[in-house]
Amino acid sequence: MRQRPSVSGAFFGEAIRGTTTAFGGDVPVGPVTAYFRDDIASLDDPRARIDGSIVLPGKITQRTYPGGHYRYVVAIGDRHFTVTDDRYHELDRPVGLRLPLAALHLFPKTQTTGGHHA
């Protein structure tokens, strides 16, 4: 994900192979690593545009039913993410991994040098 400021001071997040969306709050400028809890991720249409969220296009590669819900593995590029969903989806189905922007934890992709690190 890459962050860039707008003229108004808001930030926009541009997901890899995704679209640009507004992101409010303090974020590092430039390439970032985004962390999120798996319980905030959900499945949606891969072309969905939802205010306050990014939707990363991917494909279902695994499905399990541990009881009460389905657990999916979604491949996005060379990365894999687990998502819980109540609905049944076919393997190899294109899906969008929806992530609410407010639930993302963003860190600079490159570490600063110098100083002491624990």
Report on this structure:
This protein is mainly beta and 118 residues long. It is 0% helix and 49% strand. The strands form two sheets. A five-stranded antiparallel beta sheet has the order 3-2-1-4-10, with no helix packed on it. A five-stranded antiparallel beta sheet has the order 5-9-6-7-8, with no helix packed on it. Strand 7 (70-76) and strand 8 (79-85) form a beta hairpin.
Please give a quick description of this structure.
The chain is an all-beta fold and 118 residues long. The chain has no helices and 10 strands. The chain has a 5-stranded antiparallel sheet with strand order 3-2-1-4-10, with no helix packed on it. Strands 5-9-6-7-8 form a 5-stranded antiparallel sheet, with no helix packed on it.
Jot down its keywords.
118 residues, disordered N terminus, OB fold (Dihydrolipoamide Acetyltransferase, E2P), single chain, five-stranded antiparallel sheet, Transp-assoc_OB_typ2
